[in-house]
Amino acid sequence: MAENQFMSRQHLMNRFEILDGLLRGTPLKKILMRVCAMVEESHPDYRCSISFAEPLQQRLRGCVAPSLPAEFAQALDPMPISLDGSCCGRAAASKEPAFIANLLQRPELADFHPLLSRIGMNSCWSYPVLNAEGELLGTFSILRAQEGLPDEDDRQRMLQGVELTLLVLERQERLETILMLDRSYFSTRTSICFCDARQPELPIYRSNPALCELLGGNPDGQPLHQFFPEESAFQPLPREAGQRISTLGRRLDGSEFHCEINIIPVVDDYGELARIFLTLHDTSERFHNEQALAESEARFRRMFEEVPHVAVRGCAPDGKVRFWNKASEKLFGYTAEEAMGQALPRHGDSHYTSSNEYELYRKDGSLVPVFGTSVPIHTPGVGMEVYTLEIDLTQLKETERERIQLLQLLLQAQKMEALGQLTGGIAHDFNNILATILGNLELARHDPDPSLLEEIQVAAERARDLTQRMLSYSHPHPASRMATPLAEPIREVCRILSAVIPSSIQLRLNLSEQAPPAQLDPVELHQILANLIINSRDELPEQGLIEVGLRYAELETLVCSSCLRPVEGPLVEVWVRDSGAGIPPEIRSRIFDPFFTTKGIGKGSGLGLAVLHRLVHERGGHVVLAPGPGAHFRVLLQPAPNSPAPPPVAPGGAEQPAKIMVIDDEPMLARMLGKLLTSRGYQTEVFTDSKLAWDAFAADPSAYAAVITDQTMPNKTGDVIARDALALRPDLPILLCTGFSERIDADTARAIGIRFFFQKPVKPATLFEALAQVVPTPK
Length: 779
Fold this sequence. Notes:
Blueprint: H1 2-23, H2 28-41, E1 47-54, E2 59-64, H3 70-75, E3 79-80, H4 87-94, E4 98-100, H5 113-119, E5 123-130, E6 136-144, H6 152-170, H7 175-181, H8 184-187, E7 191-196, E8 204-205, H9 209-215, E9 243-250, E10 256-267, E11 273-282, H10 284-306, E12 311-315, E13 321-324, H11 326-332, H12 336-339, E14 356-361, E15 367-379, E16 383-392, H13 394-446, H14 450-474, E17 483-484, H15 487-497, E18 505-511, E19 518-519, H16 522-539, E20 544-553, E21 558-559, E22 566-567, E23 571-578, H17 608-618, E24 622-625, E25 632-637, E26 659-663, H18 667-679, E27 683-687, H19 690-699, E28 706-710, H20 718-728, E29 734-738, H21 746-752, E30 756-759, H22 764-774
């Protein structure tokens, strides 16, 4: 309401100023430029233009746009009056307001797009200027840099601009005649009167009701100084431009009030000052508010001076101290007298202009850590100052150091807990190593074969490596940011953990050799996998499956389950999933909290996943708890810098790796065949359990160039493996060997899709000759 009243008063003052210009014969274009300026003063983003209508020629001419470049006015002169043209052309054609929210999106205005881009204008609102008979006199337009449509306040301002434009274009009667006919002169709440400037006393006449109410009676005929005793306020009287003064007024009953007066000179036909036109605003409330504000500022200043624990200081642009409270004295050691006017070391640095942590010097030369926030303040009569509020962080830093030490102890405790889980596997490995050494020593007593000593040395070196890894894992050490190929460390930790996993639970590996090295310490990888695999073991029933995988992940849209931030790829993914019941939805948001556990008392510390979160995020990675049956954790790690990306896929399909799967339930025969193929340069993966072989193939069918399988085996026979494998990958070469079988012969094998059928024993040369026909011979 107050804003609308102010706008109404301002509009009335603008109206009278325009009438005065008309009365004094000011050029029309200059008056219209003033109309544009008046509307622009009501909003900083407005850029106004006024065009004259030439109805017979169906065009707009003479664009007046004082705040826009001259090229804009030239481009719009002339402008066709058309519903398909510009914003002002549409308003003129329809005689209705026209609004365009985004000029640069209108194809019909394409010729104007470069100009609009240069001057930074994006929206245009136009009103037609119509006389009482509805005839088009011109248009009034507002352009803005901001996109959008006008709100109610914008429309009101435009209508005021349209009214002023109409007033100018119709050139009404002289100022006093119009004012007498204009009912708004008497109905407005703005206090208005005239004074006769030809008489020294400046007698008042034509006071409106609002002024009579302000002064407590009708002042007509009374000298101006009776109501405004400060004679200097009106001396000298303005003769050309208007003037605004603030003074003390006195009512007829003697009470005083503060007011603001706008003085507009009115000259006669001979250019002599004939009268002055006054508009008065009672500013008593504002004056008292300003007094209250000054008192409030004084209270706040006292508060800043006395506030404990928060150092408040103000500095000039040259770094010299202008304000220094008692907390600053305590924090920095300087008294206010010592600090004021001085440029203290680092206390005036201009880069401390936002919330931040930094260090400042005390008087004794020591540095104190602080958290500070600064704000530049411009005070009239004082200039620019930067005020800074700072809190001493010394105690907080000490507490943080203690917290980090405690966290490191907790992490070490959790590491030792995980090490305890590995103990069974480590003992199993040591027993195998000792058995190998003792057995070869026994053989060496009877056979001086040098290869026996080589076997003993290999076993001893393996024991050494295992001991070093165990010591590295159990003792604190600074984590390195080495580029770590992950496949072999994953195999190692799974081999160790297999000894503490029941034989009824299958531990399966699905590792891509194409995954690049990751930015992760091998010891940290051991800790992460030990936590996840042992958790899966503890949650599985008597039987089940735990799968550990590795791949290079071109990620879909994911959100980290622990920090809830978007995951950006590509990344190296290590996953662990099991066939258990999974993690209930109601606890998924809590599983990464320290000390949260679903295990019984004494069976878990609740630190495993919290440590996993910390280790992974310190390396720039994320953890995603994937949906699905069972628990499925995806650990997403940053590839090591400068590590090569996986080889691209060839245009005709994926390039086949030269890896041969060998399946035979006779261990000696399987090992012999694997060594035979390896000696010819092939990569081999040997299985003596047909079910494990099938699980490995099903996890990654494209990993194998060919399969050599026995026929008669437990769980799955060779022909069953062949049918199932060809269903997943029809182009797979399969070589089947059998000692005797009533189920299958060469014709049956050929019908299944098996490339070669052999009766055992098979000569190596025959096998290599057949293999060379389906798999490239290694160089």
